[in-house]
Amino acid sequence: MPKVYTINEISLILGEAVKEVLKLNIGNEVKLSPTIQKIGSVALRPDISSFLDFYGDYNGLICLNFSKDAALELCRLHFTTMGFAEEDLPKDPFSDEVINFIGEMTNQIAGNFRKKMEEKFGLSAKNPQPKALQINHTIQMFIESALKSTQCRKLSFSTPAHNSFYAELSLEKTEFILMEEVLAEEKKEESVDDLLSKFF
């Protein structure tokens, strides 16, 4: 039987994309919680959020939500890896430098996520330029699909200084059935038979 991948496995792909992009940009690891939460909908949440929708062979929405401390810490680590002196690092979590940094990280995360999806499933999608902004109140977000046919998950991360941030993923209700694994297994079995036929 072919293996079926659900939003849970897709969430882990997103989690790896987040970890890889941030490690590259801040020179340090962020920690991903081993627990994936099932949620009713995705949302932009205080203090700083970014979002993007993607469409194509699969459709969905990603929201990244940062506490102000997490956003400032990550941005300062990024500038430190670029050689900025302490006095030149941003101090205001709502400054343009921090907001722009979160937007750029979201853009890179989206690219990494889409690349991983294409490598794994042979499926492609596009997304517009992500938006990053200061948030004072929770704002629910929905993809262009009937609400009952969407599914949502939440991933929890912590920075090197243990500040929290989150990735929320919404997908249209779908399963990814990877036939390539079945075909590869069949090919493997055939090659064994071919080998045995040479001796018996």
Task: Give a description of the structure.
With 200 residues, the protein is α+β, with helices and mostly antiparallel strands. It has one domain: Chemotaxis protein chec (3-Layer(aba) Sandwich). It is 40% helix and 28% strand. The chain has 4 helices and 12 strands, in the order βαβββββααββββββα. Strands 2, 3, 5, 6, 7, 8, 10 and 11 form an 8-stranded antiparallel β-sheet that branches. The two termini are 30 Å apart. The model has no long low-confidence stretch (mean pLDDT 90).
Listing every helix as H and every strand as E from the N terminus to the C terminus, the arrangement reads EHEEEEEHHEEEEEEH
Number of strands: 12
Q: Give the distance, in angstroms, between the N- and C-terminal Cα atoms.
A: 30 Å
Looking at the structure, what is the overall shape? globular
Strand content: 25-35%
Residue windows where pLDDT falls under 50 for at least 5 positions: none
The CATH class label is Alpha Beta
Structural class: alpha+beta
Query: What is the averaged pLDDT score?
Result: 90
Helix content: 25-40%
Q: Largest beta sheet, briefly?
A: 8 strands, antiparallel
Cα radius of gyration in angstroms: 20 Å
CATH topology: Chemotaxis protein chec
The CATH architecture name reads: 3-Layer(aba) Sandwich
- Please report the number of helical segments: 4
How many distinct domains?
A: 1
Task: Give short descriptive properties of this protein.
200 residues, alpha+beta, Chemotaxis protein chec, eight-stranded antiparallel β-sheet, two-stranded antiparallel sheet, 4 helices, 40% helix, globular
